[in-house]
Batch of 2 targets.
Target 1
Amino acid sequence: MHTVRILSLLSGAPNHGIGAVPSESLGRSSVATPKHSGTAKASRDPEEVDLSPATPFYREEASSAGQHGLVFDLLLLAPSSHTHFALPSIKFLSLFTGGRVGIYSCDDTSTLPQDLYVCAAVPSWHNPGLY
């Protein structure tokens, strides 16, 4: 089976179409704070953090994508330190397909070009037995 790698650049939570994450769930989900490439820190107040997915859409689609040899890399560009990406919902795209997640501040995208290259150059792997 051939594998296809899909690079998705996001600057916020999906808010249109069939995969839209309800806006009321964004206020209670974790806020991604870019520190440097590939890391995120959640809000420290446990009362504010809800890591349950707001929609089953991405889990279902990621499961199907993984079975068909699609790999999703998510590169999240944060315009501010309080940008919501709906990570509890969209994380399944990379988790179930073997992709990567990187979070970048718009002020500090120094490693973004290298990470884009790595996403394009790394051979895709696919093992349906892992899902």
Target 2
Amino acid sequence: MIQLKRDIAANAINSGKIEDGTITYSDIKDNTISADDITNNLIFGDGDLIDLSDVDHSSTDVMGLVLPGVSSASPSSPSSGEGYLAYDTAGDQVIFYNGSSWAQIGGGVSLYSDSGETGTTSSVSGLELINSDEISLIRGCSDSQLLKWNDTAKTWICADDTGGAGSGISTVRESMDLLQSGH
């Protein structure tokens, strides 16, 4: 017991001095451990949890989790493994390593602005994703078709415009005053 107290006082406790080489939260008084308590890799097993829920950012104190910073969306790849996270400081985005390449988490979608056509003629939203990062209304409708809601299939579909009458603009009169005219 005296040697343990000396080791603690000298900050000389390490995994070599622990029987199974591990320290769990229950091994630490008050269930706390600081960054100074960890010198190399911190390894978690199945069922372990990093709980940052008490971090509330209600002050200007530095707290939370900071990811490794990289200067591009394609930094050097790890020699093995997957699931690595990093923060791309040049692109202001979080990226992850999927085992073969780095990819953006989430990402943005912009409106499609080209005039190309597709064969898509129906969708639940009436929209289609183009090039994985652009969105557009369905563009597979032929001339004289428009998007209509199909309540049975619960989808937007390209369909002919039927059910209406007439074409062009009619002349409308109220009393003897002309309201609108055209054709």
